[in-house]
Design brief:
Order of helices and strands: HH
Radius of gyration: 12 Å
Largest sheet: none
Shape: globular
Strand content: under 5%
Distance between the termini: 28 Å
């Protein structure tokens, strides 16, 4: 089962704009891009061993 939780995020406008451009380049929503970046950082730091089933990778263009 896909168990997602909502979390309000306060973010600097310039950071949000940059994430929006990045998400557009990768054909993702801003929410999906933030989750992808966080998941990647967690995996690289050893804090999350395996990606969840819905991890998704870069979208094919």
């Amino acid at each position: 089962m896909n168990d997602k939780k909502a979390y309000p995020l306060r973010i600097n406008a310039a950071v949000l704009d940059a994430v929006q451009r990045w998400a557009d380049d990768e054909l993702r929503s801003v929410n999906a891009q933030i989750e992808y970046v966080l998941r990647d950082a967690l995996r690289k730091s050893g804090r999350m061993k395996t990606p969840p089933d819905d991890a998704g990778g870069p979208k094919k263009k």
